[in-house]
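Q: Convert this sequence to C-alpha cells.
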Amino acid sequence: MGKTPFQTMNVAPERLKHNGWNTNVVSPENEAKIDASIRRLGLFKPIICRELADGTLEILGGAHRRDSAIRLKMPEVQVINLGRLDDKRAKEIGLVDNGRYGNDDTLRLAELLDGLGSPDDLATFMPYTDADFASIFSSVNIDLDDLDIPDDDGSPSALPKEKPVQTHTILRFKVPVEDAATITDQIEATMKAQRFTEDDALTNAGHALVHLIANGR
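A:
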C-alpha cells in the first residue's frame, strides 16, 4: 500500500468532529491534566483527521486534545488532514495513533522524572497517578538486604536467591472526611465476615476492599 497523503492546516477546534469508534476514554482528572499540559507546553502534537465527503473533518487521533483546546478557548489548532479515507483505513490509523508499542525502562524513567521536578508537580500535567509515581520511584530505592549479598567469610559465593514475585501493590487515594468512617467500618466488617485475617492488616484491608468492589457494595 502507498503512503497516505496529508495536508497540514490550522482550523478552529469546533470544526473537528469526533468519530464514532474511539475507545480511548479519559477521566475528568486526566482531562484536567491534559488542560494543564497544554497550558504548560502548548499543543505541540497536531490532531489527525480525515475529510468526509461533505467536507467535514473527522478526528482519527487527538479527540481529547481537541476538547481541551475548546475548554481553553484556543481559536485554532494544528491539524493533519489525511484526506478521503475509507472506514477501515481510518480505524486502523486511529488505533495506531492511540496505541503504544513499547514499555518504559523503569530505572531510566525514574531518573528522567527525578530530574524534572517533584511527583506532586509532575502529577498535575503528566499521565501518571500517585500509585504510578510510587511504583516508578521505588525502583531506585534498593535495599541492600534485597541484593542477597553473602558475608565475605572466604567461602565460595552462594548463588543469589530468586527474588519473590510481587503479588500486591500499595494504592494511595483521598476520600471525603465525612465518608472516611463509613468506609473504614465497611472494610473492617468485611474483614471479619470474610475472615480476611491471615495476612498483615494492610493486605487484609485490601482484600476486603476488593471484595466490596467485586460484589457491588
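The mean pLDDT is 84.
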